[in-house]
Amino acid sequence: MSLNCNEINLSLSELDLEGSFIQDIIQPGFDTLALYTYKNSTAKTVLICTAQKSCRINETRRKIPKNEKPLRFMEFLKSRIRGAKIVSCRQLGLERIIKMELTHGDESYIMYIRLWSNAGNIILCDSAKKILDTMFRRPGKDEITGGIFHEPEFILNDHTSDQKSESQDYSSADQKSSVKKFPVRDFLELKTEYDALPDSKYKKFEDLSFNEKLDLFYSEHAETLSREALLEKCEKWFNEHHTKLISALSKLEEKRKQFSLAPQKKHYGDLIMTFASQMQPDSNFIECTDYETNETLRIKIDPKKSAHENAQFYYESYKKEISGLEQLDQDIQLTKDKISRLEKEYDSMKNEPNPVRIEQMIRKDSKPKQQEKKTHPGLDYTVDGWYILVGRDANENDELLRRHVRGSDMWFHTRDCPGGYVFVKYRAGKTIPLEIMLYAGNLAVYYSKARKAGKADLYYTQVKYLRRAKNGPKGLVLPTQEKNLNIILDSKLLAKLEVLRQEQEGI
């Protein structure tokens, strides 16, 4: 549950933030913010959470993991209030809204921290209460840049209709009344768990500050950031992905069983050619005696086609399925590897003690791959320390050439055949080994018009020996000092590259 008004006051009194300086700001999640403060040679990490049913402000001793990609609100706050001094910090009446007044050089700011369970927010305003930016932008409430933050008014007590600004304090009678209605929790239910902790002997539970109890409680029991709630999300995430992969694996294995019958299709083609004279006009089947088993067979045919064409259909099906068997084996192995990586990822989530880190791991793995911004076009692989870049079309080839490779990098391309460019990045004092050249060569053939033929001649040279063709199409270059390489596609090698790429991308 979220902090009530009296718990917020107690937490703020222990934090004693007046006169502190904000040294840094970290936003580990969309609804959580950490202020690194410093005062009188003492550093504190102040955690502010606006998540539903877990709204709170308290000091934490736990490490706050940084988000993989800096979030908008954090970057904005850093530009405005990092290094600022906290002039005052108090709750507005007993309304669970904290008003933090800040100064940074000649600038003055007000940061409102609203700890309402269903409408939590952090709003930074200038000294005139004009909104500069918010953690959650809510146009319906005018909580957007340029809006004005209005401090709500409240009833002084149950026996008067007088109203006053929340910036004023409640009377002592109102405070006593609120303590009875909203008592401060003692968290005694945590004592047994705390006493069992390895370092609990250094401090008795009764001697813990309210902030320390809050940190302990919300790390284990908060409904949004607790490990239990997050692990439920992990389990849901795991089951969803695991079920899809198991289903895909089942389909692949079923398809492999069908493909394993490929030799029978070749045999059907042989039988059709052998007993072509027995084909009946307008019949969808040909009846014949299998010379291997002496059994009578009915083989499905197309009456509109000749015996040779019907046999050719079965021969082509045989070739496709035989060639597909090897690819299916690779796909099955890739899927099994994905399942194994997924299970390891789930185990790491379950064993992660930091709930904020768990939340980040879930968010990262649930983000659609197409939304992840790439630093370069095309594909990339890292093999034994060698970095390989692959352009798959003219646009990617041109972009890689212009912005992502250097003169000493090696360039591979199919000779006299359109295709992608493959680059092997230069390593100081190293010569590209033959194995890496074979990897690059296979990729160059695979992403070219020569893929169907399964082999091609390549030429390779350093990027500095490439010259753009004058008035030529995008990406077209003319090489000099090139050397030749003949490549026959190796499906096992390509499968190994695909496994490496998926492992590196966490697919």
Give a verbal description of the structure:
The protein is α+β, with helices and mostly antiparallel strands and 507 residues long. It folds into 3 domains: 5-221, Roll (ibrinogen binding protein from staphylococcus aureus fold), CATH 2.30.310.10; 247-351; 374-505, no CATH class. It has helices at 5-15, 72-81, 172-181, 191-195, 210-221, 227-259, 262-274, 307-351, 355-366, 394-403, 434-446, 491-505, and strands at residues 21-29, 32-39, 42-49, 56-59, 85-91, 97-104, 107-114, 121-126, 131-134, 153-157, 160-165, 285-289, 296-300, 379-383, 386-390, 410-414, 422-424, 455-462, 466-468, 477-479, 483-488. A hairpin with a 2-residue loop joins strand 2 (32-39) and strand 3 (42-49). The chain is elongated, with a radius of gyration of 34 Å.
Round the mean pLDDT to the nearest integer and report it.
85
**Which ranges are low-confidence, i.e. pLDDT below 50, for 5 or more consecutive residues?**
155-168, 366-372
Sheet with the most strands: spatial strand order: 14-15-17-16-18-21
- Estimate nothing, just give the exact number of structural domains: 3
User: Got a strand count?
Assistant: 21
What best-fitting shape do the alpha-carbon axes yield? elongated
Assign the CATH architecture of the largest domain. Answer: Roll
Percent of residues in helices: 25-40%
Structural classification: alpha+beta
**Largest sheet, if any?**
6 strands, antiparallel
Strand content: 15-25%
Q: What is the element layout, followed by pairings?
A:
Blueprint lengths: L4 H11 L5 E9 L2 E8 L2 E8 L6 E4 L12 H10 L3 E7 L5 E8 L2 E8 L6 E6 L4 E4 L18 E5 L2 E6 L6 H10 L9 H5 L14 H12 L5 H33 L2 H13 L10 E5 L6 E5 L6 H45 L3 H12 L12 E5 L2 E5 L3 H10 L6 E5 L7 E3 L9 H13 L8 E8 L3 E3 L8 E3 L3 E6 L2 H15 L2
Antiparallel strand pairs: 1-2, 2-3, 3-4, 5-6, 6-7, 7-8, 8-9, 10-11, 12-13, 14-15, 15-17, 16-17, 16-18, 18-21, 19-20
Helix pairs in contact: 6-8, 6-9, 7-8, 8-12
